[in-house]
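Section 3.1: Structural characterization of target chains.
Under the original work plan, the team committed to producing a structural model for every single-chain target entering the pipeline before any wet-lab resources were allocated. The record below documents one such target. The sequence was received from the expression subgroup and is listed exactly as submitted; it comprises 69 residues.
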Amino acid sequence: MIRWKLREVMARKKVTNRDLAKAMEMHEGSISRLKSADEMPRVDGKTLDRLCEALDCVLEDLIEQENTA
């Protein structure tokens, strides 16, 4: 299973929904929905790239593959 870690990255970097929404030119509600997801949400590559740029992180910081065995 792929685990979505946006909430953790934002907390570690002390970035609010409002700050990230402004940096990405998105609505705060959209950021809130992305942040509250535990499993990987349906996002395209462009959005992932913008998240990494806005949060100054790499893709591996946002997602993690958990072993189910």
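The first strand starts at residue 2 and ends at 4.
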